[in-house]
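Hello Y.,

Per our agreement to keep a running log of every chain we model this quarter, I'm adding this entry. I've kept the format consistent with earlier entries: sequence first, then predicted structure.
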Amino acid sequence: VMNLFEEDQIIPYLYKAPTELGEFKKLFTYLGASLNATVDQYAMVLSNIYHATRGQKMHPNEMMAAFKCVQGLFNTLEKHPNDEVDVSVLYLPSKFGTLLEAKELVFNDDPSFTDRIKTFNRPFLVDLFECGVHAPSFDDLIKHLPSQLQPVMLTSLVKEVLEESSRETLVQHGVAEKLRMQLNSVAFSQGVVRLIRHENRRSGQKVGSDVLNSIQSRLKKIKVYGVKSVKTYLSYEGKLIPSSDMECECFVDQ
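Predicted structure for the entry above:
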């Protein structure tokens, strides 16, 4: 790579072209060298590490190289989200210290579930922050990858479900009825619409009147109930995840 910094090299996989060869930059790029490291190159390095370790737990040097590679891959992806990614398989590190195909890994896109999935037996993607990746949203960054190369989002697998016993004490009067009237009111829906319009105007986007009408319509249909306690659990493929139950202040059931 012609423009790679010394500290960004991943030896023995990815090297910066020696400074003294800089005058031959055009020749080397013509022969196949790239000016900047690409997502495909980082994916190739991860593939090489995977095959070198045969999918087993990585040694510290291998893990350091893999983490550095993940940092370079996602930083490049953030800077050039529209660049074509031309690899059929992407390997990424799991929290177990192994490299796995990205599509086999789960990304925790809801941190509130963290303490409730300790018995969930699926391999999770390593914390990208540990790899030196910095981004406003890791969720959005991962979604820049082609769909077939993305880890699975936890919320697409796991659902929060209201325990049936919590429904046995449903009431609509009192505080519940007062809150329902506020949420269903014209004044509240108009206030929400004004906030949405203001935010979209600030960000230079436009929101259609059909979307705003839909929001107002849905706000009018909200029902509010009071219960003695709200207890939920997490469900995977229709089955309760052990030790995932939790009491909470409120729950939205759609």
